[in-house]
């Protein structure tokens, strides 16, 4: 199909959601209908940037709050990632979760998602202050390797990457052109993006420690009762060469925009983790980095929906990029929003991307 006859889809955002939507658009039946461009200030190779969340994520599948719609996204994503284990991009991860309540199976609404789920036997030596636990297999990825792999595949498929800071939907609409489509995967940027300005978006600060701990080989976390979102304890082994890379967390601080490392917090994270995972106290263990990222959360949950927006929008505060754009008559353009996944971007990515693409195609 000639380039001129393809629908130009411009995806704003090169985090895990934007990249995954591009993957779904460019594979399988109907992929030839679309020309895809990804526009972002931060690209997958910008792994030290705190301007986007994807490099700093835990990037495993772990249980969060139940929601029927999100449950389907997570199941689809888990199955997709599980199938990628033979590629080496995804780690099959033995896991234990301990509860401060005594109804492990009743609390595990997610047992149909993971593999090999069972309740730990009564004789199992539980950590202090916990009453029961479960064991299963989950998955994890290394964000850096995974994001770069997604981008590499997209480049081979002809997707164009355009590194650009964007402040308004007008800019993205201008790139898409007449008859084009915008996918807004701008994450926390949706709060300040002119034309969207979603004030329901807020950050959840997460501080973690990356470490080499070759004998810490399980995903482990404790689910407290009542929940204590400010300080959580988890250890996530990741695929690495050589093996041994783990992520130790962490914090869960809503509406905290601070991206600096707090070393008193780091000490607390490490001490809590050592109490639960003795392997972290072994001589081989060494800290590799301290990390802070902002999870892009949204009141009411993720926004995945279509909207027809008149672009270019007018107003004295809207940047006037070119005289032509400023004088042109507004036309309705399809914008598909896909943002606000909070701490669950990786574990909902494939399910959410499939839904976003279904919505896009249904509104063509």
What would you note in describing this structure?
- The protein is elongated and about 70 Å long.
- It is 24% helix and 30% strand.
- Helix 1 runs parallel beside helix 4, helix 1 crosses helix 8 and helix 2 packs across helix 8.
- It folds into two domains: 172 residues, NAD(P)-binding Rossmann-like Domain (Rossmann fold, 3-Layer(aba) Sandwich), CATH 3.40.50; 147 residues, D-Amino Acid Oxidase, Chain A, domain 2, CATH 3.30.9.10.
- With 364 residues, it is an alpha/beta fold.
- The longest helix is centred in the C-terminal third of the chain and has 18 residues.
- Strands 3, 4, 5, 8, 9, 10, 11, 12 and 13 form a nine-stranded mixed sheet that branches.
- The model has no long low-confidence stretch (mean pLDDT 93).
- Strand 10 and strand 11 form a beta hairpin.
- The protein has eight helices and 15 strands.
- This is Nucleotide-binding domain-containing protein.
Concise summary:
This protein is α/β, with parallel strands linked by helices and 364 residues long.
User: What oligomeric assembly is this protein in?
Assistant: single chain
Task: Please identify, by name, the CATH architecture of the largest domain.
Answer: 3-Layer(aba) Sandwich
How would you name the CATH homologous superfamily of the largest domain?
Answer: NAD(P)-binding Rossmann-like Domain
SSE run: EHEHEHEEHEHEEEEEEHEEHEH
Rough outline:
elongated
Note the beta-strand portion. Answer: 25-35%
CA radius of gyration is 21 Å
Number of helices: 8
Report the mean per-residue pLDDT as an integer. 93
CATH class of the largest domain: Alpha Beta
Helix fraction? 10-25%
Backbone structural class: alpha/beta
Q: Count of DSSP E strands?
A: 15
């Amino acid at each position: 199909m000639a380039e001129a006859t393809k629908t130009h889809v411009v995806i704003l955002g090169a985090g895990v959601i934007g990249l995954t939507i591009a993957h779904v658009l460019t594979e399988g039946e109907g992929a030839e209908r679309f020309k895809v461009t990804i526009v972002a200030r931060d690209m997958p190779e910008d792994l030290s940037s705190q301007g986007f969340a994807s490099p700093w994520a835990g990037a495993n599948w772990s249980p969060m709050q139940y929601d029927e719609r999100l449950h389907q996204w997570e199941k689809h994503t888990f199955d997709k990632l599980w199938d990628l284990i033979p590629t080496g991009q995804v780690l099959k991860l033995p896991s234990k979760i301990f509860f401060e309540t005594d109804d492990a199976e009743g609390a595990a609404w997610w047992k149909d998602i993971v593999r090999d789920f069972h309740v730990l036997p009564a004789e199992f030596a539980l950590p202090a202050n916990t009453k029961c636990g479960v064991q299963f297999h989950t998955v994890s990825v290394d964000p850096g390797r995974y994001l770069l792999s997604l981008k590499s595949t997209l480049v081979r498929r002809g997707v164009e990457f355009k590194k650009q800071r964007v402040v308004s939907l007008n800019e993205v609409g201008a790139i898409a052109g007449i008859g084009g489509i915008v996918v807004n995967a701008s994450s926390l940027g949706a709060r300040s993006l002119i034309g969207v300005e979603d004030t329901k978006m807020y950050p959840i600060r997460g501080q973690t420690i990356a470490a080499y701990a070759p004998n810490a080989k399980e995903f482990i976390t404790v689910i407290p009762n009542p929940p204590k979102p400010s300080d959580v304890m988890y250890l996530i082994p990741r695929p690495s060469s050589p093996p041994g890379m783990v992520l130790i967390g962490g914090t869960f601080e809503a509406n905290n925009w601070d991206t600096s490392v707090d070393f008193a917090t780091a000490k607390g994270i490490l001490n809590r983790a050592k109490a639960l995972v003795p392997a972290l106290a072994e001589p081989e263990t060494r800290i590799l980095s301290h990390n802070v990222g902002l999870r892009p959360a949204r009141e009411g949950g993720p926004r995945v929906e279509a909207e027809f927006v008149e672009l270019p929008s007018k107003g004295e505060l809207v940047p006037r990029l070119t005289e032509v754009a400023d004088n042109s008559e507004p036309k309705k353009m399809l914008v598909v929003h896909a943002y606000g996944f909070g701490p669950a971007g990786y574990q909902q990515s494939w399910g959410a991307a499939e839904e976003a693409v279904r919505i896009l195609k249904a509104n063509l």
